[in-house]
């Protein structure tokens, strides 16, 4: 008798059947996933408390609660907490968006090294933003978000086109190399635009390192629609992304329009990465580390991977931001620098691991 692959099992082809069930390819029960997600949410709440309570001045938990619940309190501790709230909210937005964007890119390309930074998407958004600053006079995230989206989309399309050249489908190595080369080219263009403009160069250096300090709600409001549209596209693409993981032929057999699904997923990934870059600069490695960590816990079902990435992404980013505040008190190390220190060894480990030939 020929064995039949059950939902959530590994089919005879060696690829996971992800078309539905509470048990993923790793055998992770749905109950474990759900309770684990609850614990992750609690950890994120603790990270938010640390984000508003720790800085050049540390605020006790009781004072944090008082500052959040009683607007009439105007102590130094309360004002410190309130001044950190926009920074924490931006960390939540950017961390979730970058983690989900990385998970989508890894799913659509079946490339475990995919990440908005590694594939040059952040570099494309940054280059177009600099051009807008230098030649159009744009000076806020709500003004240059359209340029960020255009730059990110063109960079993603260019990397896919270069990585798809020649025989066969794109491989993780070809895509990573194409992203590295394109990022280097775009960085050179960015520097060429900046060098004759000393004043712009000085302000860009801080933004380029990637950080969430100095966050303001008025800037976030102008970019929020892009996050919302990206989130809607993510919700629509979770099940279809599972079908793509089975391979294009099997996905078509299941009735999935492969081209349209790839465009939907790519649009969501580009929107989220571009909006994050516009607000916080090109922060790398969040989209690389988080999806891999999440898959190790919940399996390969992309619906669970995306749900967990929404929580684990900001958890990682906020913790990195808190570490950056502690190690050099009373000044801060930008979170993009902390993530680079954490992410570079992880990237090297993934490259050296032969099991990550494809997702």
Automatic annotation (TrEMBL):
SUPFAM superfamilies assigned: ABC transporter involved in vitamin B12 uptake, BtuC
Q: Does the keyword Lipoprotein apply?
A: no
User: What is the predominant subcellular site recorded for this chain?
Assistant: membrane
Biological process (GO) annotations held by this record are:
siderophore-iron import into cell
- Tell me where on the tree of life, at the top rank, the source sits: Bacteria
List where in the cell it is found. Cell membrane
Keyword line: Cell membrane, Membrane, Transmembrane, Transmembrane helix, Transport
- Put simply, this protein is called Putative siderophore transport system permease protein YfiZ
The species this protein belongs to is Acidipropionibacterium virtanenii
């Amino acid at each position: 008798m020929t064995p039949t692959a059950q939902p959530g099992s590994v089919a005879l082809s060696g690829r996971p059947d992800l078309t539905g069930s509470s048990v993923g390819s790793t055998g992770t029960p749905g109950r474990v996933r759900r309770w684990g997600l609850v614990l992750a949410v609690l950890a994120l709440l603790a990270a938010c408390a640390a984000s508003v309570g720790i800085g050049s001045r540390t605020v006790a938990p009781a004072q944090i609660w008082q500052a959040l619940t009683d607007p009439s309190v105007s102590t130094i501790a309360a004002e410190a907490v309130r001044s950190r709230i926009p920074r924490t909210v931006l960390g939540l937005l950017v961390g979730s968006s970058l983690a989900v964007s990385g998970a989508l890119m890894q799913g659509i390309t079946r490339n475990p090294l995919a990440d908005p930074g590694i594939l040059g998407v952040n570099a494309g958004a940054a280059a177009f933003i600099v051009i807008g600053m230098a030649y159009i006079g744009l000076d806020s995230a709500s003004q240059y978000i359209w340029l960020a989206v255009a730059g990110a989309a063109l960079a993603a399309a260019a990397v896919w086109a270069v990585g798809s050249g020649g025989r066969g489908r794109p491989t993780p190595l070809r895509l990573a190399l194409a992203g590295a080369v394109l990022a280097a080219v775009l960085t050179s263009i960015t520097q060429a635009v900046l060098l004759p403009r000393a004043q712009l160069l000085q302000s860009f250096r801080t933004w380029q390192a990637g950080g969430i300090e100095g966050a303001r709600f008025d800037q976030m409001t102008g970019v929020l629609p892009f996050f919302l549209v990206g989130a809607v596209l993510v919700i629509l693409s979770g099940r279809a992304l599972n079908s793509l993981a089975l391979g294009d032929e099997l996905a078509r057999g299941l009735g999935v329009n492969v081209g349209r699904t790839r465009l939907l997923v790519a649009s969501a990934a580009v929107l989220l990465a571009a909006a994050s870059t516009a607000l916080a600069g090109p922060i790398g490695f969040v989209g690389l580390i988080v999806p891999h960590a999440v898959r190790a816990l919940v399996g390969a079902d992309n619906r669970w991977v995306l749900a967990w990435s929404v929580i684990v992404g900001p958890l990682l980013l906020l913790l990195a931001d808190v570490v950056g505040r502690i190690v050099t008190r009373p000044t801060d190390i930008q979170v993009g620098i902390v993530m680079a220190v954490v992410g570079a060894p992880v990237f090297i480990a993934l490259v050296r691991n032969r099991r990550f030939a494809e997702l």
